[in-house]
TrEMBL record:
<comment type="function">
    <text>Catalyzes the transfer of the alpha-amino group from S-adenosyl-L-methionine (SAM) to 7-keto-8-aminopelargonic acid (KAPA) to form 7,8-diaminopelargonic acid (DAPA). It is the only aminotransferase known to utilize SAM as an amino donor.</text>
</comment>
<feature type="binding site">
    <location>
        <begin position="311"/>
        <end position="312"/>
    </location>
    <ligand>
        <name>pyridoxal 5'-phosphate</name>
    </ligand>
</feature>
<dbReference type="Pfam" id="PF00202">
    <property type="entry name" value="Aminotran_3"/>
</dbReference>
<dbReference type="InterPro" id="IPR005814">
    <property type="entry name" value="Aminotrans_3"/>
</dbReference>
<feature type="modified residue" description="N6-(pyridoxal phosphate)lysine">
    <location>
        <position position="277"/>
    </location>
</feature>
<dbReference type="InterPro" id="IPR015424">
    <property type="entry name" value="PyrdxlP-dep_Trfase"/>
</dbReference>
<dbReference type="InterPro" id="IPR005815">
    <property type="entry name" value="BioA"/>
</dbReference>
<dbReference type="InterPro" id="IPR015421">
    <property type="entry name" value="PyrdxlP-dep_Trfase_major"/>
</dbReference>
<feature type="binding site">
    <location>
        <position position="60"/>
    </location>
    <ligand>
        <name>substrate</name>
    </ligand>
</feature>
<feature type="binding site">
    <location>
        <position position="310"/>
    </location>
    <ligand>
        <name>substrate</name>
    </ligand>
</feature>
<feature type="binding site">
    <location>
        <begin position="120"/>
        <end position="121"/>
    </location>
    <ligand>
        <name>pyridoxal 5'-phosphate</name>
    </ligand>
</feature>
<comment type="similarity">
    <text>Belongs to the class-III pyridoxal-phosphate-dependent aminotransferase family. BioA subfamily.</text>
</comment>
<comment type="pathway">
    <text>Cofactor biosynthesis; biotin biosynthesis; 7,8-diaminononanoate from 8-amino-7-oxononanoate (SAM route): step 1/1.</text>
</comment>
<protein>
    <recommendedName>
        <fullName>Adenosylmethionine-8-amino-7-oxononanoate aminotransferase</fullName>
        <ecNumber>2.6.1.62</ecNumber>
    </recommendedName>
</protein>
<dbReference type="InterPro" id="IPR015422">
    <property type="entry name" value="PyrdxlP-dep_Trfase_small"/>
</dbReference>
<feature type="binding site">
    <location>
        <position position="394"/>
    </location>
    <ligand>
        <name>substrate</name>
    </ligand>
</feature>
<dbReference type="InterPro" id="IPR049704">
    <property type="entry name" value="Aminotrans_3_PPA_site"/>
</dbReference>
Length: 427
């Protein structure tokens, strides 16, 4: 007999959730605690007990404008009155065309061709397929592996898992069934020994089975929130050019201003660029893969003659319309000023923690603030401590960090820093 549906009280809803719903990286038989959210507005979440807390995570880095944004709400309603979805096979529509037009315009000039995927992980899967098909199209079918760096994270599907850190990452248990990619050392932090690191990269790149290189540029996300030296990107570009490899930048976390640049790819241009998360301002799932003309021609020259991918919700009109409204909002507001202001607030607010007991490092980049501990975080205790300060944080591994919406004001940024300090005390 099926379980009874949950009744309406918060306790009843949470009880059903605990018995029947999986959450990211949690056990079904011994689930971690969750909080009921009943609403979101501005930069605040309303919890089931009626309390409001500042969202220090931008809903996993995607809600860069905050919540209940009038311009995005209006785009959602307007598009829904025309069509919410239509298949992209054999059909097209204005929101997808306009979005592709905008993405080509705001990304570096060589990136001219757009594949609209339905999530960040899928965009990385598509990028990997593009790399392999391109190599087949240019007459190098023996090239089937990718070079990447340790400490990386690119998603949870199988192709993505194969290019995540194989030892310290979240997918080590699948090592035996994943494609064995080629890993080099994690890139050094700014000011580190880039030349020494580059020697290892150049040695690894002589592997004749390599088809491409994939990295998160400048900031590694879920693999450890590691900031590295920009010179490493130039090394990867040079190595890719020297060996005929396709260079892929996964900017799902870093894109749309998070690091202080609209895209890190403005500094060093890849052959393939993956975008997601903040693309729709956190409203709907959507991702994009942009390629150069050379990559597109190589794919078309492969034996299939076409790119072998086509998800059901590819180019979803609702998501595309909201993405366009989000890009409009970015252009209208001083997002660079917001990110600089948040960086100053996070830097000054978190720097005093550097000398606290148990702290390995404090680092900031754009609208990102990270405190690294010398031990794994007690996530329930750290979460509770942050909530006592009126802030929602989601620590992981040895990190307590924040990536707040750009709309976060100075007082709320200071509150986030106090919440991180409280979390550090108990973690």
């Amino acid at each position: 007999m099926s379980a009874a549906p949950p009744a309406g009280t918060a306790d009843e809803l949470l009880a059903f959730d605990r018995e029947h719903l999986w959450h990211p990286y949690t056990s079904m038989t011994d689930p971690a605690p969750v909080r009921l959210v009943t609403g979101a507005d501005g930069v605040r979440l309303t919890l089931g007990d009626g309390s409001q807390v500042v969202d220090g995570m931008s809903s996993w880095w995607s809600a860069i404008h905050g919540y209940r944004v009038p311009e995005l709400d209006a785009a959602l309603v307007e598009q829904s009155q025309q069509m919410s979805h239509v298949m992209f096979g054999g059909l097209t529509h204005e929101p997808a065309i306009r979005l592709a037009e905008r993405l080509v315009a705001i990304t570096p000039e060589p990136l001219q061709h757009v594949f609209l995927a339905d999530s960040g992980s899928v965009s990385v899967e598509v990028a990997i397929k593009m790399v392999l098909q391109h190599q087949r199209g240019v007459g190098r079918p023996e090239r089937t592996r990718l070079l990447t760096v340790r400490g990386g994270y690119h998603g949870d599907t199988f192709g993505c898992m194969s290019v995540c850190d194989p030892v310290g990452g979240m997918h080590a248990m699948f090592t035996g069934v994943l494609t064995q990619q080629v890993f080099v050392d994690r890139p050094p932090a700014p000011g580190g020994d880039v030349d020494g690191w580059a020697e290892g990269v150049r040695r690894a790149a002589t592997d004749p089975s390599l088809a491409g290189i994939i990295v998160e540029p400048l900031l590694q996300g879920a693999g450890g929130m590691h900031v590295y030296d920009e010179r490493c990107l130039r090394v990867l570009r040079e190595v890719a050019d020297e060996h005929g490899l396709v260079l892929v930048f996964d900017e799902i976390a870093t894109g749309f201003g998070r690091t202080g640049d609209l895209f890190v790819s403005e500094r060093v241009v890849p052959d393939i660029l993956c975008l997601g998360k903040a693309l729709t301002g956190g409203y709907l799932t959507l991702a994009a893969v942009l390629t150069t003309g050379a990559v597109a021609r190589g794919i078309s020259a492969s034996e299939s003659g076409v790119l072998m991918h086509g998800p059901t919700f590819m180019g979803n009109p609702l998501a595309c319309a909201i993405a366009l409204a989000s890009l409009d909002l970015l252009e209208k507001r001083d997002w660079q000023g917001d990110v600089r202001r948040l960086n100053a607030a996070l830097t000054s607010g978190l720097e005093p923690l550097r000398t606290a007991a148990g702290i390995v490092d404090v680092r900031t980049l754009g609208a990102v603030g990270v405190v690294q501990l010398d031990h794994p975080v007690d996530v329930p205790k750290a979460t509770d401590a942050a909530l006592e300060e009126g802030v929602w944080l989601r620590p992981f591994r040895d990190l307590i960090y924040t990536m707040p919406p750009y709309a976060t004001g100075d007082a709320d940024a200071a509150r986030i820093c106090r919440a991180i300090a409280r979390a550090v005390e108990v973690a």
